[in-house]
Design goal:
Blueprint: H1 2-13, E1 19-22, E2 42-44, E3 61-65, H2 70-84, H3 91-99, E4 120-123, E5 126-128, H4 131-140, E6 148-152, H5 158-166, E7 169-174, H6 177-189, E8 196-199, E9 214-217, H7 226-230, E10 235-243, E11 250-258, E12 261-271
Parallel strand pairs: 6-7, 6-9, 7-8, 9-10
Antiparallel strand pairs: 1-12, 2-3, 4-5, 10-11, 11-12
The structure holds S-adenosyl-L-homocysteine (SAH).
Length: 280
């Protein structure tokens, strides 16, 4: 009972990264009891992806459970049926949410809560985003297979894996080196080795691979970063981004670029961690 109370308190305390604020998706409010995996189920790290010159450390093992079971799939389907399918119409996005094992992106202590519609802590003060928000933001990108997409804020790597289900051209940047390293290991282990990760200040995007058909920002700046707009395809590139004050509710915007024209559409209120900036 005490353990469950701690779980609930932690989930509430961390509902600050990647959760919808308004209109609020239904939440069951009842995290599933935490279960511990057998030690054999947690993964040793594979070799670093050959595609990367590593700008971050690759850990030799990670505290993640890579086993997928009927029970995990059942919970994942239930999450999709209850919280994703009612909010998202794009069948490819729904299929991606059914395919990616979210439980492998969270520390093993959170396994039992992996398929609740909540953000969860993943260490270094960061979280994995709320699944229904991941799905809604992904749908807004309107990705076709072959589109090039950039994510700012890799964190757990979960959103990057969802993008990887939709197109082979996924680039993701993370400012915290340790998180980039863990995400690399997890993505490789689950077969998303083609997702490119770099450790850098995403305020400046990843110019080397621009232009992007779509950019998704999963941490909130207080203004629209000009470098991201500049790296969007001028012929209809889409940028999905939360903008607003630190520690407060932000507005999620869909930004569309046509030449030098930038159209901004307000989508909904959300809560994300702030986009931090490199010092100096
Ligand atoms: N997309 C993630 C959730 C994002 S949480 C997922 O699927 O799990 C926000 C992440 O943005 C954090 O990991 C944080 O470290 C990162 N971040 C914050 N500021 C950043 C910046 N300037 N550049 C790159 N990443 C940044």
């Amino acid at each position: 009972m005490k353990l469950l109370a701690v779980v609930i308190a932690l989930v509430l305390a961390t509902a600050g990264c990647g959760s919808a604020a308004s209109p609020s998706p239904r939440q069951d409010g009842s995290p599933v009891p935490v279960t511990r995996p057998t030690p054999a189920a947690t993964g040793d790290a594979p070799m670093p992806s050959p595609s990367e010159t590593s700008s971050f450390p690759i850990p030799s093992s990670v505290d993640r459970d890579f086993a997928d079971s009927d029970e995990m799939r059942r919970q994942r389907d239930q999450l999709v049926d209850s919280y994703i399918a009612p909010r998202v119409t794009d069948a490819r996005v729904i299929a991606a949410m059914r395919a990616v094992p979210r439980h492998s992106f969270v520390p093993t202590q959170w396994l039992g809560a992996a398929y609740s519609d909540h953000p969860l802590p993943i260490g270094h003060g960061q979280t994995i985003s709320q699944p229904s928000l991941v799905a809604m933001m992904t749908e807004l990108l309107r990705l076709d297979e072959g589109d090039r997409v950039l994510e700012i804020g890799t964190s757990s790597g979960y959103q990057a894996a969802i993008l990887g289900e939709l197109t082979p051209e996924v680039y993701s940047v993370e400012i915290i080196p340790e998180l980039a390293g863990i995400a690399r290991v997890v993505l490789d282990r689950l077969g998303y080795g083609d997702v490119r990760i770099d450790r850098r200040d995403g305020y400046f995007g990843w110019e080397e691979h621009a232009p992007y058909d779509a950019i998704i920002v999963t941490a909130a700046p207080d203004h629209l970063p000009a470098p991201l707009v500049a790296q969007l395809d001028p012929d209809g590139g889409r940028l999905v981004i939360p903008i607003g004050p630190v520690g407060d509710v932000q507005v999620l915007w869909l930004v569309t670029r046509r030449g030098d024209e930038v159209a901004m559409e307000r989508v909904l209120e959300v809560r994300f961690v702030p986009l931090t900036r490199e010092e100096g």
